[in-house]
């Protein structure tokens, strides 16, 4: 049976489906008629192979405790080998109900209450939340915006580590929302500084399958010494639009680090995962290639569409170059609006629900993050609304 879900222009009504993106505007202080392009899930149907496999499993009618065996790992490993030239080992794998859960477990496993943990703002806001919610302190090596692209201040990176006695670094690769796909040279510099100061690297690589410029390198693939000092967080949830399936694959090559992480996972009370998430992962990575390739090309087209629209219609706005992810970072600072004024105009005049740059750290003020994983007609409507209110 051929793949059926390849019409990415198709508009699907997601309202009244318990959708966080569409059904909770009023509860979250937004106008009810707001157009949402905020949270990072897609408005596309997932692969029909996944859909059919889930229907078949649901029709079985029994949903007892479930687990997977070696074939699951082999399917995941094959995807990593083909797409990222990385061959993990089965013993490295710990499955968790999401990457954010894994970040929290890492904070608890490798630091003590009151310790400082390093991040790079503007960055995905749960990074700060899992640090602060677990009684640790956030320290940021803010990324530097130059020539419409973000870069790492490595001198500040090392100084922050030394000054704050950092032992854990939460790294976003590819970076959300900066859109960077880090080079091998940048990754090695990070790795060398962290090894020099005994800092464990937790690399959130959930967007690894969304690369439009450059090439994603799995941090553990840099070499043995780097491999032994990192935790690699992956998931099919972004790639195949499976966020509510609550499944992530966390790889920890170092035995001691893996043991500490496992202890925290066990202490959380989490054991077996959602059987539908396990089924969806196997089918996604074994039969989802055609859907994935067509989806990537569609999103590439949407990113190009935003770039052209901004250049031609929004003279006071800049689009930060998007090398990876389907989340475009727009710089509104040229409008002269304060962060609060910008939010008010976007929400109440344009009637758009984007992610305000403020939530990604102070250095995100004046920016907005827009999710382009939607039919291009919806994206065009959103951009026209911004044009009209500016």
Plain-language structure description:
The protein is an alpha/beta fold. The chain is built from 13 helices and 15 strands. The chain has helices spanning 20-23, 48-60, 70-84, 99-110, 126-132, 154-163, 184-196, 224-227, 255-267, 275-287, 289-313, 339-349, 376-389, and strands spanning 35-36, 93-96, 116-119, 137-140, 144-146, 149-151, 168-172, 200-204, 230-234, 248-251, 318-319, 327-331, 352-353, 355-356, 367-371. A five-stranded mixed beta sheet has the order 2-10-9-8-7, with helices on both faces. The termini are far apart.
Can I get a quick summary?
This protein has 390 residues and is of the alpha/beta class.
Q: Which properties best describe this structure?
A:
4-stranded antiparallel beta sheet, single chain, Aspartate Aminotransferase, domain 1, 390 residues, 2 domains, Aspartate Aminotransferase, domain 2, 5-stranded mixed beta sheet, alpha/beta, 13 helices
Low-confidence stretches: none
Strand order of the largest sheet: 2-10-9-8-7
The helix content is: 25-40%
CATH structural class of the largest domain:
Alpha Beta
| Morphology | globular
- How many runs of DSSP E, i.e. beta strands? 15
CATH-defined superfamily of the largest domain? Type I PLP-dependent aspartate aminotransferase-like (Major domain)
For the biggest sheet, the summary is:
5 strands, mixed
Give the N-terminus to C-terminus distance in angstroms.
Answer: 48 Å
CATH domain fold name of the largest domain: Aspartate Aminotransferase, domain 2
CATH architect. name of the largest domain: 3-Layer(aba) Sandwich
* Alpha-carbon Rg, integer: 21 Å
Please indicate the percent range of residues in DSSP E strands (runs of 2 or more).
5-15%
């Amino acid at each position: 049976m051929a793949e059926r879900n390849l019409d990415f222009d198709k508009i699907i009504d997601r309202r009244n489906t318990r959708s966080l993106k569409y059904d909770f505007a009023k509860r979250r202080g937004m106008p009810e008629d707001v157009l949402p392009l905020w949270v990072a899930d897609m408005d596309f149907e997932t692969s029909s192979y996944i859909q059919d496999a889930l229907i078949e499993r649901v029709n079985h009618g029994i949903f007892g405790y479930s687990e997977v065996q070696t074939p699951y790992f082999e399917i995941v490993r094959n995807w990593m080998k083909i797409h990222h030239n990385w061959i993990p080992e089965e013993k490295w794998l710990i499955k968790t109900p999401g990457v954010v859960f894994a970040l929290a477990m890492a904070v608890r496993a490798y630091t003590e209450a009151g310790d400082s943990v390093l991040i790079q703002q503007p960055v995905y806001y749960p990074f700060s939340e899992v640090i602060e919610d677990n009684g640790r302190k956030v320290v940021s090596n803010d990324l530097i915006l130059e020539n419409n692209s973000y870069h790492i201040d490595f001198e500040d990176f090392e100084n922050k580590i030394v000054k704050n006695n950092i032992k854990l670094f939460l790294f976003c690769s590819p970076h959300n929302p900066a859109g960077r796909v880090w080079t091998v040279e940048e990754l090695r510099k990070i790795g060398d500084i962290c090894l020099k100061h005994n800092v464990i690297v937790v690399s959130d690589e959930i967007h690894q399958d969304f690369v439009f410029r450059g090439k994603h390198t799995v941090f553990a693939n840099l070499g043995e010494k780097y491999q032994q000092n990192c935790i690699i967080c992956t998931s099919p949830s972004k790639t195949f639009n499976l966020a509510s399936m609550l499944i992530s694959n966390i790889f920890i090559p170092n035995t001691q680090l893996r043991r500490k992480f496992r202890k925290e996972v066990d202490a959380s009370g989490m054991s077996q995962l959602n059987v539908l998430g396990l089924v969806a992962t196997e089918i996604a990575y074994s039969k989802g290639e055609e859907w994935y390739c067509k989806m990537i090309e569609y999103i590439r087209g949407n990113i190009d569409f935003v770039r052209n629209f901004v250049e031609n219609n929004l003279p006071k706005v800049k689009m930060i170059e998007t090398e990876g992810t389907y989340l475009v970072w727009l710089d509104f600072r040229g409008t002269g609006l304060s962060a609060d004024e910008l939010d008010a105009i976007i929400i109440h005049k344009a009637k758009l629900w984007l992610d305000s740059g403020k939530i990604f750290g102070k250095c995100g003020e004046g920016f907005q993050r827009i999710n382009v994983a939607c039919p291009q007609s919806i994206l065009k409507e959103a951009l026209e609304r911004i044009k009209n209110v500016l």
